[in-house]
Each structure stands twice: as structure tokens, then as C-alpha cells.
TrEMBL record:
Protein name stated in the entry: PBSX family phage terminase large subunit
PANTHER family named in the record: PBSX PHAGE TERMINASE LARGE SUBUNIT, PTHR39184
Gene3D superfamilies in alphabetical order: 3.30.420.280, P-loop containing nucleotide triphosphate hydrolases (3.40.50.300)
Superkingdom as given in the UniProt entry: Bacteria
Pfam families, alphabetized: Terminase_3
Domain Phage terminase large subunit N-terminal per the UniProt entry, residue ranges: 46-242
Amino acid sequence: MGRKRKNLKLEDFDVEVVSSDSAFSEKQHLALNEDWVPESIDEICYDGGARSGKTYLVILAIISRAWLIAESRHLVARYRLNHLKMSLWRQTLIPILKKNGFREGIDYKINESDFIITFANGSEIYGAGLDDADRVEKIMGTEFNTIFINEATQISYATYQKVSSRLSLNIPSIINKMIIDCNPRNKYHWIYKYFILRQDPESGNALSERRMKRIARRNWTPLDNPYLSKEYVERLSDLTGAEKERLYKGLWVDVEGLVYPMFEQAIVEDFPIPESWDCAGAVDFGYTNPFVFLWFFYDKSNETWYLAKEHYEAEKTVREHCKVIKEFRIPNTFTVADWDAEDRATMAENGITTIQADKDISTGLQAVMQLLSNQKGLKLKIFRSCVKTVEEFSVYSWEPTKEGKNSKEHPVKSFDHAMDAIRYFANKVLGKKFNIITRDLEKVRAEESKRNKPMSADDVRANRLRMMGVDPGYFTKKR
């Protein structure tokens, strides 16, 4: 017979670990009692400003759960492994253990190469990055009682769902919990839709009443952390614009640093597409990462392309994706695709001919920006139902500038599969408009005319000598 589940309360935790009044603020105490104790809550979101105490609270609670419940297993994760190492692992988790009297080698031991902390009672805390397919697959082979994703705005909803499926270790004396924390981004992000609006991020439909009751969300600001210095709080209050709204006030607003900050103005409500409109397609291949196919329809009356449908799915073959594409519509103008020759050949075998994409990043980004911002001429609008594409737009950001180095002006290479497909499409429809000719036009024309003129026998002989490294004039010069 299994052990009877025990609903843990604050007084059940080790005094030095959790329940000390010096460890938590009033709001943190409230969060522990209302979010972590009830058996009815299994998903928790803590969003808000910088240094508001949300990550500290989660880590200390996870340590307490591991220390109290023998053989339990817990995961702390972040999108990039190196960010997990430097921030969550070395600057938060390990210092909290030491500060609260845990002794390495006696109370716990650390496997630094695999990022595993094993306590004396057999419980474990795993650290992981979600930016590598092999690491994610390793997680998928393990079951946990607690899963915490730090700065979860960096991951997709699909990744959240995939990782949360591993919250399945059955120990009767512990309530399994899925927790995320983040600084706010914009209101198109899946976290805002799921945890705040209580909508399915993919369909836009309201979550079921049962699911709503199992979700807890709490917003934080630096003012909720009484242990911050007055000077630090004042520094945050002196921020301006979107950064102040996000990091000081904890609000969900447009994020500075987005590659396409104008994308929201291009979103339109769905409407029936006339059969007479031409259709184009764009493909970004993937297996472990999603395979993306986007359908674009052209309204000649106002020179507008509408991104009206998306197919966005991982872990299926190209042949299977082709079946889905053909069920809806094969584009009648062009389908531009990533360069993978084998995948393009497979699509051709299944009746979908593609052309090779122009993958130039800088030109493609400029082309997309022009299509999104144009009021006249060629434009791009996006159906609201293309939720995966809209979600990618909401997080597609420039690489942050490293201290002492110039900005590379490249987007962060993550969660960008629809963004790549849109870039291929934009480069195709705008063609060579962004190629700048810096040479004198008359010289270019003169060279073209000369190249098109038939060569004489003397010209052929002279060219042959030049190829041999000999000046043709050497033999004709008078001495």
C-alpha cells in the first residue's frame, strides 16, 4: 500500500531552510501557502520585475521539497545551458544551499559535469539547458516531482508542454508542481495568453474550468523584496520606456530589442480567402525542430500578401508533411524553401515543387521590415490564427551586445523557424530591390557592351597569353 499523501505546510519545512522570518517577505510567505501547499494547484507562474524575489523563492522551496521528501526528483532549467550555469546554478542554487547550512559531502554531493545535486536522503535536483535536442531528450527520459523553468519567455509553448509531460514521478507524500518565472514581454507571448488571459495559446479558446482552477499566477515588483537596497530600487525606478514598465513595474508591454517591433500593426482578423487569389508558399525544414510551411495569398487590388495559414510541427517526415500541405492547397505561383536538397527532392516527388531560397539574413530582415511597415506598395498582413508565427514574432530579438564589443546585429538563433520561412518569402517577392550598385552606371554598361561584343582572333590570342601570365603587348612593343 502506498504512503498517504501529506499536504505540506510551512511549519513542516526545516526551520533553517524555509520558515525563518528572515528568509521570506510577507508576499513570499503568502505565495508558499497559497501556491505550493494546495494539492489543487499544479502549474505556477511568477512574472514581474527584476530582483523581486520570485526566483529565490522557487529555488528555496525546491531545496526544501528535496530535503523533506526522500527519493524525490526535481528539475531546474533554462533555455541556454551556459546561462543556467552562470546564473541559476552558481549564483542562486549553490549559494542558497551554503547559506542555509547544507554541507557539501555530508548533506549533499554535486556532479558538476551532469549538473546533479544528490542529497543524503536520495533526493536529486537536476540542472539542464533546453537549447540542445540531446539534452531535451535526456530530460524526456526522466520523471520529476518539481519542474522549474527560469526566464521561460525564452522557450516556446511546445517546449513547455513537452517538458511538463515529465512531471510524472509518483511519490504520495509530495504534490507535483510545474513552475515558471520570467520578466514580462509583450501581450502576444504564450505565457501572457496561458497564465494571465487563461487561453489556449494555439487556438485562442478559453481554458477549461478544471484547468483554470489548477493554475496559479502571481505578479511581482522589486518593491515586493524588502531585502533590496534603496539605491538599487531607485536605480530601477529611474529606467525609462518599456524597460521601466517591465523591470520596475512588472508589466507586460512591447519589448525593446525586438527585430520586428512593428509586427503587431500587421496582424489582422481572419477572413475567407477568395479562390481566385494567387498562392505562394515558404518552407523551413526540420525534424527535431519544427517543420514550417506558410501559405501566402495575394490581393492584387491593394498589393497585399496575406499570411493566412501555417503548418508547424516537429518529429514527422517530409513525406508526412506533404500530405498535410496537399490537403489544404499546393501554391500555384512559387514555393520557396531552405537549401536541403534531399528534403526538396522528397517534396518534388510528392507533387510540391520548390525553388531554393535566398538565405541572406541582412537582406531578408530588411525585406520583412519593409513588407510589415509599408502603407503603400507591396505589403504583408498576418492572420491572427497563425498563432505559432505570431508567437515567434513576439520573442524574435536581437542578440544582446556583449560588454566591450560591438553589436553583431544578428537575431538570437532560437525559436525562429517561421521567421526563417518569412525571410525566404520576403527575399523572393522583393527580389533584388535591396542590392545596391556602388559602381558608376556608365562603366557597368560599357563593360556589359564589351562582354556582349564578338571577340576577334587577336582578342582570343591576347586572352590566352594573359592566362599564361604574359603581357600581350610585350611582343608588339617597339624597342
